[in-house]
What we know:
The protein has helices at residues 38-50, 69-89, 107-112, 128-138, 164-174, 201-206, 229-243, 247-250, 263-267, 273-284, 307-329, 341-349, 361-365, 372-384, 389-402, 406-420, 427-436, 459-465, 469-475, and strands at 9-11, 23-27, 54-60, 92-97, 115-121, 143-146. It is of the alpha/beta class. It has 3 domains: 6-148, Rossmann fold (3-Layer(aba) Sandwich); 229-328, Serine Threonine Protein Phosphatase 5, Tetratricopeptide repeat; 336-475, DNA Cyclobutane Dipyrimidine Photolyase, subunit A, domain 3 (Orthogonal Bundle). Strands 1-6-5-2-3-4 form a 6-stranded mixed β-sheet, sandwiched between helices. Helix 11 packs across helix 17, helix 15 (389-402) packs antiparallel against helix 16 (406-420) and helix 16 packs antiparallel against helix 17 (427-436). The protein is globular, with a radius of gyration of 23 Å. The chain binds flavin-adenine dinucleotide.
Amino acid sequence: MTAIPRLRIRDLNHKPVTGGGEYVLYWMVAARRTRFHFGLQHAIDLCRELGRPLVVFEPLRCDYRWASERFHRFILDGMNDNDARFRKAGIAYYPYVERRSGEGKGLLSALAAHACCVVTDDYPCFMIPAMTAAGARQVPVRMEAVDGNGLMPLRAAEQAFPTAYAFRRFLQRELPGHLAEFPEPDPLAACAGLPAGSIPEEVRSRWPEAQSAVDLDRSVPAVAMSGGEAAATALLDRFTRDRLPLYDTTRNDTAVHGSSGLSPYLHFGQISSHQVCTALFSREGWSVGDLSDSTAGKRQGWWGMPAATEAFLDQLVTWRELGFNNCTWLPDYDSYESLPGWARETLAKHASDPRDPVYSLEQFRKAETHDPLWNAAQRQLLQEGRIHNYMRMLWGKKILHWSEEPREALRIMIELNNRYALDGRDPNSYSGIFWVLGRHDRAWGPERPIFGKIRYMTSENTARKMNVKPYLARFGEA
Ligand SMILES: Cc1cc2nc3c(=O)[nH]c(=O)nc-3n(C[C@H](O)[C@H](O)[C@H](O)COP(=O)(O)OP(=O)(O)OC[C@H]3O[C@@H](n4cnc5c(N)ncnc54)[C@H](O)[C@@H]3O)c2cc1C
């Protein structure tokens, strides 16, 4: 197998690897898949080095913020796929679903007590950094976190980039060196010949594999879309075949489903951007030699691919990884104070402008505004756990327009996005929401009430620019 770049591996606790342990433990918390997986690949490398089996522990807590039936169903679908794949490869896999809050406490330590070392996922957002840091303190052996988040290792940058343009320039300089460092498509193939592992009996009997959580918010129900690695791969195949060739012209059209729909799978780590890029590269017959030499930060022309594919890569690589970059290097990425100075200044200048109407969180939640198009977007979020890409921008801008003040708009966007969107609680949740308030954007004229110099959007303009009737027919009031 190819070596994993050192830049992607972080020692979380500086404790020793103990040769006397029974197995290498991989604690799957964010990259919930079996393919194109640097973390799993690293754990298997360690198994081979130490002559020990692999044990994979994939837990699902029920008490994290915004936990609901919707996210559980999606993750459980993925656990079923993982179970089948690990079983086939002869790997001991322990999917643990916490039934009641706190029931899983002590489980990681109990498993790690038998381990030579622990490998986990490096993910810069939401509850994961605090959870893995706490886990690393508890376990008696070395814990390493592996970053398989994107094409560019998180720690290759050392600073938060303020704009997509600045980040694109950085990528165009640095990315070519990382394009040869893709993870193995099927790391489990290297498990052949490893000794068989098993879950310690005292662990199994104290924490039996549970089927469904009892303490869970059922007011956010599961959606029709299935989760899991198999569904993600099937969607990727359909998208590259049918929609990718028109992506640049249809992505923002509300009458069409032009985008990939991959964000929930990317969010839960059920597919990796390396797998998505591998599919694109193979479709286009592309190789690194096709890259342009220019590092001017242009959106088009750098990859040397058709315009539609380049437009998609700009979202998947530039915009998505900009979000990961900011979560890694901006300690307060989720606070209002992390907005650029010009944005805070202009919003403060207009904070006391009269607002009419003003809606509460509950009115927004129930899609009870005066605006049928906005309500349709909110209904799509409630029903499907996603919002059409263009409508999501409008959705955020109108929350800014109709909230009491900008900090309240931020609170409302975070609450609704992270509670209902399958892809919420992600670095790109914060990129998108803070973009509404000026992050990664520039000042726009003319200066307007409430928005100041923040980019402005209206439902009327949207309806003028595109045919919104099909969208309203689907998600409008019954
Ligand atoms: C207010 C607001 C909230 C948002 N919240 C989220 C969120 O919670 N989770 C989330 O993943 N994205 C979020 N976005 C960004 C964007 O809307 C979604 O990533 C995109 O609509 C997902 O659909 P798709 O997978 O079909 O995207 P595609 O157009 O097919 O793009 C492919 C992938 O590129 C990435 N991507 C696309 N657009 C963006 C973008 N503008 N910024 C960053 N990455 C992007 C995503 O990973 C996406 O899956 C938000 C945007 C706004 C304006």
